[in-house]
């Protein structure tokens, strides 16, 4: 387990009390395993014609929602801070709060539906994925079931390490198994196959303290279809974003988006912040401390 002084906090924006329990419980699982603090946040949108300094008069049920969210994890051994942020938009409030505080990870909830063609996951989530100064986790807000098996697809991309870290934390807390999967397409090159299988071995080698780790190599014409089919046997899928170009319409990548919408199990999609500081934090968290 990591030295808490080396890790930043987990920021959890809370808007809907009906889904707060599922979101905060997942954040508390991660915080428990990595010995990090939780910051619960509610953003109050202030119209442009109103000074931010007068945002207090727009507060309605936000304090009650934060108190409710904090009560959910009152029996967990984690430090919890509650904050109200006044901002011009929800996404700017989330990102500025992450920048002001020592935040390493943002965990946001996602309904799993698309309202408009020009919005990928949701207007606020899309913007957070583009602008956040830290790692971002997006959890599809399903009815939570006990976690017994976690499906961890691996392709060797820039978010594989973070996906493995998240899956490992949740597996340790829930004493769950992790099933690590690589999907090869028939038209893939030999180099691509070797890189994926090297990533598979690296991920498995880095998973410590997990009760059961299994692996599988699948051949399929459609990676998304193969993962959706395999999700039927899992309770949770944790997969990394495939898109690193912030100017593309898909801020998370088309593959995670398709799997995220269609998977039978719960889903957490992850996008790592690639700054040197964030990469050093992740490296330090893996070092043994006496």
TrEMBL record:
Similarity-based family: Belongs to the universal stress protein A family.
SUPFAM superfamilies: Adenine nucleotide alpha hydrolases-like
Taxonomic lineage of the native organism: Archaea, Methanobacteriati, Methanobacteriota, Stenosarchaea group, Halobacteria
Domain of life: Archaea
Protein name: Nucleotide-binding universal stress protein, UspA family
Organism: Halostagnicola kamekurae
Limits of the UspA domain: 9-138, 148-271
InterPro entries recorded: Rossmann-like_a/b/a_fold, Universal_stress_UspA, UspA
């Amino acid at each position: 387990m990591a030295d808490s002084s080396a890790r930043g906090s987990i920021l959890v924006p809370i808007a809907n009390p009906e889904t707060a329990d599922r979101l905060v419980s997942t954040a508390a699982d991660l915080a428990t395993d990595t010995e990090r603090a939780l910051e619960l946040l509610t953003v109050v949108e202030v119209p442009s014609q109103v000074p931010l300094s007068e945002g207090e008069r727009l507060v309605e049920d936000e304090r009650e929602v934060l108190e409710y969210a904090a009560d959910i994890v009152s029996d967990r051994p984690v430090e919890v801070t509650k904050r109200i942020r006044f901002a011009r938009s929800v996404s700017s409030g989330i990102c500025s709060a992450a920048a002001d505080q020592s935040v390493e990870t943002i965990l946001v909830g996602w309904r799993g539906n698309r309202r408009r063609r020009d919005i990928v996951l949701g207007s606020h989530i899309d913007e957070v994925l583009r602008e956040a100064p830290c790692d971002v986790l997006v959890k599809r807000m399903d009815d939570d079931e006990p976690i017994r098996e976690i499906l961890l697809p691996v392709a060797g991309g820039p978010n594989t390490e973070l996906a493995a870290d998240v899956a490992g934390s949740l597996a340790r807390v829930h004493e769950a198994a992790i099933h690590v999967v690589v999907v090869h397409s028939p038209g893939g090159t030999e180099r691509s196959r070797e890189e994926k299988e090297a990533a598979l071995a690296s991920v498995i080698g880095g998973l410590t303290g997990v009760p059961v780790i299994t692996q599988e190599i699948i051949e399929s014409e459609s990676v998304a279809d193969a993962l959706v089919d395999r999700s039927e046997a899992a309770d949770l899928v944790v997969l990394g974003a495939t898109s690193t170009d912030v100017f593309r319409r898909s801020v998370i990548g088309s593959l995670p988006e398709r799997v995220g919408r269609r998977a039978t199990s719960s889903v957490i999609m992850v996008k790592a912040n690639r700054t040197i500081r964030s990469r050093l934090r992740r490296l330090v968290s893996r070092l043994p401390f006496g």
